[in-house]
Write a structure and sequence with these properties.
Blueprint: H1 2-25, H2 31-42, E1 45-55, E2 58-67, E3 72-78, E4 84-91, H3 96-99, H4 106-116, E5 119-129, E6 134-142, E7 147-153, E8 163-170
Antiparallel strand pairs: 1-2, 1-8, 2-3, 3-4, 4-5, 5-6, 6-7, 7-8
Length: about 170
């Protein structure tokens, strides 16, 4: 019986000594972890995909979230700090909130994007920005193999800063 008590005491001592180290080892505090936590707090739902992107020489993450609110959200975060940089809501092409504000037609926006970034259009999205402005977003696969995310303001037709997609996981 004495050996069982000694073994139990040793196990308890080990647990007390190693629990803080184990907790620290399992702590997730990378920029991506912070990004995911902040994005899910802001728009709870299911993460459908994640991209690593490069915009103006700065790395960022973009999370695509099917929100519990029935909306589709894109949340961009700094790859350095995990801080949320931008939030957009993807809508259908005929969404009244988008169509009532858009002054530039899709074909005009597409021409603007392809003039600047010639290639094959892989995807088209209709976005409502956090400030309620609207834009078209195109994924363009360029001849050199780069995938560019190119955004055109749907009111002014202005080209916004493009993002090079470094890799993508999921949709």
């Amino acid at each position: 019986m004495k050996s069982n008590k000694s073994t139990l005491a040793a196990l308890i001592s080990a647990a007390v000594l190693f629990a803080p180290a184990l907790a620290q080892a399992n702590k997730h505090d990378s920029a991506l972890d912070k990004c995911v936590a902040s994005a899910m707090e802001l728009h709870p739902g299911t993460i459908l995909g994640m991209r690593a992107e490069l915009e103006n020489g700065k790395r960022q993450y973009e999370l695509d979230i099917a929100g519990n609110d029935g909306q589709h959200w894109e949340v961009e975060c700094s790859a350095k700090s995990g801080e949320i940089l931008e939030v957009e809501r993807e809508v259908a092409p005929n969404d009244p909130e988008f169509t009532s504000k858009a002054k530039v037609r899709l074909d005009e926006a597409l021409k603007t994007a392809l003039d600047a970034y010639p290639g094959a259009v892989m995807k088209i999205e209709y976005e409502i920005e956090a400030d309620d402005s609207v834009s078209y977003e195109f994924d363009i696969l360029m001849a050199d193999g780069k995938l560019m995310e190119v955004e055109v303001d749907a009111v002014t037709g202005a080209l916004k800063d493009p993002e090079e997609v470094l890799y993508q996981i999921g949709q």
